[in-house]
Amino acid sequence: MRRVLVTGGSGFIGSHLTEALLERGDSVTVVDDESTGSATNLAAVQGHERLTYVQGSVGERELVEQLTAGMDEVYHLAAAVGVALIARKPMETIERNIYPTELLLSSLRTRVQRGESVKCFLASTSEVYGKNPKDTWSEDDDIVLGPTTKPRWSYGASKAIDEFMGLAAWREYGLPVVIGRFFNVVGPRQTGAYGMVLPRFVDAALAGQPLIVHDDGQQTRCFAHVHDVVKAVLALMNTPEAVGKVFNVGSDQPISILELANQVVGLAGSASKTCFQSYSAAYDDDFEDIRRRVPDLSRLKNTITYEPAFTLEGIIRQVIDAKKNQDQS
Ligand SMILES: NC(=O)c1ccc[n+]([C@@H]2O[C@H](COP(=O)([O-])OP(=O)(O)OC[C@H]3O[C@@H](n4cnc5c(N)ncnc54)[C@H](O)[C@@H]3O)[C@@H](O)[C@H]2O)c1
Q1: pTM, full prediction
Q2: Residue 247: helix, strand or coil by DSSP?
């Protein structure tokens, strides 16, 4: 039986990952400070004999040392996430995204130096590409971030530092690290409270409120179901060739945000209207967005079998049903 640690395990992606690991037969420890996540996300596995839940921060050195001891695998998902949260709290974003990763990698690297075996997955983000103007982004493309005066870039910059640290831990200390750059991940349990667009649209459509589309709505994104993403993460961690590499993970089918809003209204059978709001009204005058965000998935598909099971329509329907029924599966 593998012993596995999931940081941020009561968050949106972390809770689905935890369920999948338990399903696989692992003994799973979750650590989460519930800053944006909630223990209720793990309601379906609460009391599971192979699940240990620790409410605490991976910013605490002693706790990190204790939790990593004896683990075969660590999935590091704890982070400050969400455009609205980052725009509001750039300092917290940087602190939450850099220091805990440094602590974790340092603790794991010490174990490797003692001759112990452990493997680590780092959850990164498409935000690392910044506003690279290419139509599709490949893992070795340049990082094109905006200026430090615009706080939103602190998310991509902090996750890029995590990637640098993870890759250095592999090269310099032989700690096996796999890095996944997630594009937009969606599904049940995702909250709209920190600016995530699909749950925000579904909440509005079900409440008969207007769907607020930022800017002209022509910016494009690709949405992947959390179960497809979790499957890819587990497959990457089971593939030796993935070690020491960065992978785009998500969907490569772009849709404009306006089209997404229209699909949500249609599928929810809602009478809600869409209305437009400028970025400066939604965030502040310093906000800058990314117009197009599409991954090249060649590396992922050449490394694992990646066949997403969900279409966007299927995902939207499932999120609507989950919200209607308060079914968080
Ligand atoms: N959801 C997406 O579309 C998306 C896209 C790209 C990358 N990611 C990455 O995936 C990971 C998970 O994101 P998510 O969407 O599930 O967000 P989430 O906010 O639901 O999950 C993050 C979890 O980490 C916890 N956390 C934060 N700081 C912590 C700390 N110091 N100690 C312990 N727990 C802490 C939060 O309480 C939360 O439960 C993050 O690393 C994020 O950067 C997500």
Answers
A1: 0.97
A2: strand
173 an active-site residue? Answer: no
| Residue bearing the CA closest to ligand 1, atom 26 | 78
- Residue given tokens 């983000």 in the structure block: 125
Ranges of beta strands (E only) in 107-202 are 119-125, 177-182, 184-186
Which residue of the set 75, 155, 194, 283 is catalytic?
155
Q: What are phi and psi of 223, to 5 degrees?
A: -115, 130
| CA-based radius of gyration for the chain | 19
Name the CATH code of domain 3-187+222-252+291-310 (choices 3.30.160.340, 3.40.50.720, 3.40.50.300, 3.20.20.80).
3.40.50.720
Pocket lining: 128 vs ligand 1, CB cutoff 6 Å: no
Mean per-residue pLDDT pooled into runs of 10, the chain (329 residues): 97 98 98 96 97 97 97 97 82 92 98 97 97 97 94 92 98 98 96 90 96 96 98 98 98 98 97 94 85 97 97 97 77
Give, using CA atoms, the residue closest to atom 32 of ligand 1. Answer: 57
Q: Confirm or reject: Cβ of 64 under 6 Å from ligand 1.
A: no
The response to whether residue 253 sits with its C-beta less than 6 Å from ligand 1 reads no
Atom of ligand 1 nearest to the CA of 194: 19
Sorted by where each begins, the domain ranges of the chain are 3-187+222-252+291-310
CB of 192 sitting under 6 A from ligand 1: no
Please tell me the distance between residue 57's alpha carbon and the centre of ligand 1 in angstroms.
12
Beta carbon of 187 within 6 Å of any ligand 1 atom: no
Q: Name residues whose C-beta falls within 8 Å of residue 62's C-beta, 6 or more positions apart in sequence.
A: none
How many other C-beta atoms can be found within 10 angstroms of the C-beta atom of residue 324?
A: 11
Burial of 46 (0-12, 13-18, 19+ CB in 10 A): exposed
